[in-house]
Specification:
The complex is a heterodimer of chains A (about 350) and B (about 280). With about 350 residues, chain A is of the alpha/beta class. Chain A has 14 helices and nine strands. In chain A, helix 1 runs antiparallel to helix 2, helix 3 crosses helix 11 and helix 6 packs parallel to helix 8. In chain B, helix 5 links the parallel strand 6 and strand 7. The longest helix of chain B has 20 residues. Classes of the chains: A alpha/beta (about 350), B alpha/beta (about 280).
């Protein structure tokens, strides 16, 4: 969905700093406890009872982290996914891959900094890497439009995927965007047409594609590099048809109801696994990925290695057929005889698994 | 003098503050030229304003009547009906909204697919109706289009999809709607590889997830005049760039000038145009 009501203030510029402040609301007990531990650690020549207290507090801390982060409200998940310290594509390039040879540009218009592409090595495996990047410094963020790609970004990604297929390299896509950039230039250069073209072409790229939603999976902007053989999602990422602010702006008539929209949209990793949209959830370290980049990267690397290994031996025809079926079966509907238009449709349980399409 | 005096409370003026306008049904207000036009005159011209050629909305059923040979349309997959997979409720539960939309439009979902003939040429046809939850694509629209495209791949018929969607992917079915974009595009990829001809007709409005999937993938993309075509809605773009939008931003004419639409075709010539294209491409 694209239309947002007036008053929905969802510019990237306003959301990022806001997310950091918002985090503290549910992270506060964790931060307070950490503070206490830090103070105790700083005590010179601690008495035995202090050490015991320290042990107790550390146990308490891990319990608290688990408790809070296992039961995050969907709106809090969005805040975690947007946390400014959350590892981004560039961090993972550093921590997961042993080498990255960036390839710039789409050979047609420019070099979108919101999507980075290039050769990469994960252990001994050569891959084509494609990742959406938000940037950390203000300069980086401005260059990448806060991680919102333009049409040239999608063209660049597709160009590299086709090249990967030609040279038998598997493709790894990292998804992390609020959405494709809604600007004048983007529309003039055919945002919709380029995303659509990617969806069609990616379904036929004859090489394994592993996609991971590492932070925000923002609508068509995410899906534009999100057609693959395996779709994984970090535990506290979200992947949605529309941003919660945009949805609230349309259906609740104001963006301030984003928390309600977030709960309604069912976009957390658990929901998506249940709905059969993703294949696996990559667990995050205690207190979410931003608390421990290294551990997150190690888990992610293991996940990539496993998936790439599993897909490596699959014959190309079978791979494409499986990729087709993967998307083909998504959807929940029923088949009822005609002439009952206007009757209430049966309501399925919110928790029920989707029924595979009959066709 | 009495007519300008302030009326007593309870007098007829206050009691019945009826909007002064045109009676519903007989006249239409034209968005193009702002004139009030006779509904019958509009309908005689396939829903086009007699004053300024503004293209009014036409329902999916009407569109099929206009486009295909008389009584040649055979609807497919009419049994497929929507469910409420997320238990979605905004100010109104989704399942109630569906019932209301079905009653309002007489459609079961936002899309009709089937087979028909256009000037004697067989084709597979899909139409989305922008009145049904903004013509948005949920599981049913995705499934119907995918099945229709798969059928056309088998039977080697041309596919014509007339898109009208202000909504794009339907929010109420969440991520499942987004994935329908991938699903339909994958079916189109196979159809394309099999050599099938796909003519995409864009009508007012074609936006968001519909524009960013099947509607943009025609071998030929034809648009009706002055249709709103784009990815992000104009208000979102304006809120983002904080500047005035160019004249005619995101109209068919704008998209044609920027190279994304092959032809702009008035509704009255759509049949002729599609027949001609089929004759060029299908031997």
């Amino acid at each position: 969905m694209v239309w947002r009501a007036p008053g929905s203030n969802t510019n990237c510029e306003t959301i990022l700093p806001q997310a950091a402040q918002d985090m503290s609301s549910f992270e506060a007990p964790i931060l307070a406890l950490e503070d206490r531990i830090e103070k105790l650690v700083a005590v010179p020549n601690p008495a035995p009872d202090v050490e015991a207290e320290l042990r107790r507090l550390r146990v308490e801390l891990s319990r608290l982290r688990r408790e809070i982060f296992d039961h995050l409200d969907p709106w809090d998940v969005v805040k975690v996914a947007r946390h400014p310290d959350r590892p981004q594509t560039l961090d993972y390039i550093e921590l997961v891959f042993d080498e990255f040879v960036e390839l710039h540009g789409d050979r047609s218009f420019g070099d979108d900094r919101a999507i980075l592409t290039g050769f990469a090595k994960i252990d001994d495996r050569q891959v084509m890497f494609i990742g959406q990047n938000k940037g950390r410094t203000l300069k980086e963020r401005n260059e990448s439009f806060f991680g919102c790609p333009h049409p040239e970004g999608y063209r660049k990604a597709l160009l590299r995927m086709k090249m990967a297929a030609k040279y038998q390299l598997p493709v790894v896509c990292f998804i992390d965007t609020m959405g494709a950039y809604p600007g004048i230039g983007a529309e003039e250069r055919g945002q919709a047409f380029n995303i659509a073209f990617n969806l069609r072409e990616m379904s036929r790229v004859a090489t394994p594609i592993v996609c991971v939603v590492i932070g925000e999976g923002g609508s068509g902007g995410a899906l534009g590099i999100g057609i693959g053989d395996r779709i994984a999602m970090l535990q506290h990422a979200y992947y949605s048809v529309i941003s919660p602010e945009g949805c609230a702006g349309i259906l609740w008539k104001h963006a301030k109801y984003a928390d309600l929209a977030a709960r309604a949209l069912k976009f957390t990793s658990k929901d998506l696994l249940r709905l059969g949209v993703i294949d696996e959830i990559v667990p995050e370290p205690p207190g979410a990925a931003h608390r421990d980049h290294r551990q997150m990267a190690a888990t992610l690397k293991a996940c990539l290695n496993r998936n790439l290994r599993e897909l490596a031996g699959v014959p190309r025809d079978q791979l494409l057929a499986q990729r087709y079926d993967k998307f083909r079966r998504i959807g929940v509907f029923e088949e009822r005889p005609p002439n009952v238009v206007g009757q209430p449709p049966a309501v399925s349980d919110a928790g029920a698994a989707p029924r595979p399409a009959a066709g | 003098m009495s007519s300008v005096e302030k009326p007593e409370p309870g007098s007829w003026v206050v009691q019945n503050p009826r909007k002064r306008g045109v009676p519903e049904g007989l006249w239409l207000h034209c968005e193009g030229c702002k004139a009030t036009v006779f509904r019958k005159a509009v309908e005689e011209r396939t829903g086009v304003c007699p004053e300024c050629d503004w293209h009014f909305y036409v329902s999916a059923q009407k569109r099929i009547q206009q486009l295909l040979d008389e009584d040649s349309f055979e609807e497919w997959f009419a049994d497929i009906s929507p469910l409420d997979p997320l238990g979605f409720a905004d100010r109104k539960p989704y399942h109630e909204r569906l019932v209301a939309e079905q009653a309002k439009t007489g459609l079961r979902e936002a899309c009709i697919v089937g087979r028909g003939y256009l000037r004697g040429r067989p084709l597979v046809c899909g139409v989305t109706d922008s009145a049904f939850i903004m013509g948005s694509m949920g599981s049913v629209v995705g499934e119907k289009l995918t099945r229709a495209i798969e059928q056309a791949t088998q039977s080697r018929h041309p596919v014509v999809i007339v898109s009208g969607s202000g909504g794009g992917a339907r929010m109420h079915e969440g991520i499942l709607s987004l994935m329908q974009m991938g699903k339909v595009c994958a079916a189109l990829a196979r159809y394309h590889e099999a050599g099938g001809l796909f003519i995409s007709v864009l009508t007012n409005p074609t936006m968001g997830g519909v524009a960013a999937s099947f509607a943009s993938l025609g071998d030929l993309v034809i648009a009706e005049p002055h249709a709103l075509v784009g990815f992000a809605g104009p208000r979102v773009v304006q809120a983002t760039v904080k500047a005035d939008l160019p004249d005619g931003f995101q109209t068919s004419e704008f998209m044609l000038a920027h190279g994304f639409i092959d032809r702009i075709t008035p509704r009255s010539e759509l049949r002729t145009e599609i027949a001609r294209i089929i004759d060029y491409c299908v031997k």
